[in-house]
Input
Amino acid sequence: NFHKARESPFYLFSSRIINKLIYFSYGTKDVLERQCQHLNKKLDLYMDNKKIELPNIESVVILNIPFWGAGVEPWALGGGGKEFTFQQDFADKKLEVFCIYSSFHIAQMQVGLSEPHRIGQAK
Output
């Protein structure tokens, strides 16, 4: 939404402060509306030809790098990744998949209070 607004011919503001306020308002609106709520009912996830049952989530993240979202290491956070015997490696030709419950969950991961719902690794 923010990007579309900035490209509009009616967009008159080029101030950094105004841009930050507009971005904040769009972000707050998105957090409160939660348009991606119940993504598990709208999305079927298959990894290596196996259907994965998803919890009540708002986002699926597919990575091939160790860091995400301002330095979060999803496979190193907390102790929840102990059931996975692999390590994240960008040279292994596999993608790592995890889920996020909400925008607040992202903030909690960034400060180390939560960990992602790890799904696994697939080709």
